[in-house]
Amino acid sequence: MPRIRSFVALPIPDPVREALAALRAAAPPRSPVRWVAPGSIHLTLKFLGELEPETVEAAKESLSNFSWNLSPFAFTLSGVGAFPGLKRPRVLWVGVTDGADRVVELAEKVESALASFGFPREERAFSPHLTVGRVNGPGPAGWAESFAAAARFAPVEVRASAFSLYESKLLPTGARYAPLLTVGFGA
Length: 187
Known about the structure:
Blueprint: E1 4-11, H1 14-21, E2 33-35, E3 42-51, H2 53-65, E4 73-83, E5 91-96, H3 100-115, E6 129-135, H4 143-150, E7 156-160, E8 162-171, E9 174-184
Antiparallel strand pairs: 1-3, 1-8, 2-6, 4-5, 4-7, 5-6, 8-9
């Protein structure tokens, strides 16, 4: 049976994803960016990678049976940046400001739930963000700095009331995501 590429993420409402997709217009000509399709924008809490089907079932079980003790919360999307930085970007992102501590708390709980079933913990510190583009090469000098300076949008609040375990299918037209499990927060 084929392996399943999977991750855990917070979904982002369609109107917010469309607003984020509009940031593309701020990119200078010949920017070497492969933009994330608006329907694919999400906030990753943990990337699990290519898993055997039985390991995906274990992930579903661990996420279903964990005592989440969470209530819905809000976080704010604001600011544009790049990993590892604007001088040599590999990933373009929109940051999380207000409510970032709640997103970090949720990511830590996801780590704990999955670690109890043997999933390795992430070594890097979690940095809540939404990937909006991936960089495919150097491009014109200073293009990323120009993009970050021009990419403006009003901060937007997103309400989180559930997260999902997703399957990611890589297709020639781009990645397609399908939820395998959704875990809602208490009231």
